[in-house]
Please model this.
Amino acid sequence: MKVLLSVFLFAQFCLAKGGYLFVESHFNPNQRWTKFSKDDELNVKNLIQHLVKSTSGKKLLLKAKRKAAKQGLTLLDVIKPGEGSLTDTTLIRRFSPRSPEHIAYETKSVVYVNRSLNQYDAILDLAHELTHFVYRRDFNPYRSDFSLSEFIKNTIEGTGGEVQAFVRECQVLKELFPVKYNDRYNCGKILDPKTGKISYELAVKRFYQVGTFEDPFKRLLLKEGILSDFPELNAEEVSFVSSAYGVPYPVAAYKEYKSVMSKVCSNDKKRIAYLDQTKKGRNPASSFIKSYHEKCKHFE
Model:
């Protein structure tokens, strides 16, 4: 039964819009993954074909396939080569000119895998980014209760956050390349010494290691009134650095929040001006104006 189930699950991945995901290849860990062929789709298929051999990777791909299908897409629509490995999520706002105060929100995500990576690293990055794609909760920075503390915590240890993505990456590494597990420094550091199993708690601890950033970052959080929300912050050597900001993840999340909120407040300010015009001199919805001033008083 287990064998039949495994074959069935693999077959589900082979079937795709317009043909099969299966491609003839042998795994070449040192070859750049985008050099497998001249066709980007074939290169992505090659990564998928090897990731599905991992138990964790197989489950992840099934969930990713289902999520993509809900958007009318396939895995090949969602996974693309890029300049860096990241999951790019776009929040789309829609409103009717007749009723601009009522807004509908929609999110769309694309998974990019660094085109310069070799096949070995690309498979692990794909597992990492697909974890974000599948599990990360959609966030809406236009909510009045969208807070800095919540954003930092969700970015790091929330569902689909950096910790979960890294743990999944290490699980795939352990399943596909067990002899190389300890070669990946941070994966080796999150093994529970008693059980030998990957520890989520140890991973969380390492993500809050901010090294020399500890004192200045704590001062920033104290100024925001949220320092007590982050007792895990410590000055141990940095283990994880954000590729986008070049700083430890908690600091990067802080910077990202400030950047996002600046854009949100700029957009809301434009929306207020638009509401003024459409209401022909009447005051726009007072609740929205009040929310705007409370949310954006530090970003105007």
